[in-house]
Amino acid sequence: MDEHGASSSRKRRSLYHNLGGGHFADVMFWKNTKESGTILAAFTLIWFLFEVVEYPFITFICQILLVSIFIFLIWSYIGSSQLIQRQPPSINDLKISESTWRFMFNKINWFIIKLYEISSGKDFRLLVLAVVSLWILSVVGNYFSSLTLLYIVFVALETIPMLYELYEEELNYAASKSGRDMKKLFKDFNSKVINKIPKANAKTRRHM
To answer: Whole-structure pTM over 0.85, yes or no?
Structure first.
């Protein structure tokens, strides 16, 4: 592998690990096309039901619970009569495992740590990108409902990493150029505005 290919591969791995790696990153990068497509289709169906059809949320939840109750009731009855070989799931099969909760809390902790790292300003380009993205989301949020906004964010999460992987060089060049331009702008602002603000010397401060 040449130097350019190795550099590109390192950047892809870096982005993959920045998304937490593991199953979450696999979904975002469409490593498993069927699973990623199914999740996207499910979110699209939920958004369509509540935003387009305006299906009542409480009605939807109650009907889902009613259908689940009837399914388990019929399944238990048929299973006990040995009409089918497969037994209904036990209570242990329905419990949410500790590993699932641990995974969720790990993702929350990862998000908090990433937010702190971005806020520290060590990666100026990432800081500017985060600020601009949050500002855009705050503006967009005035024109969309919360569910629609969440759906847009989810679709973005499922498409941007894949698009970044396809157009990595072009996006990196544009981001690098924007970062240099922003640094130059801040430097000019600091030299032409901030440095020209008169500051009180030590002697003046003592007499105040």
So the answer is: no
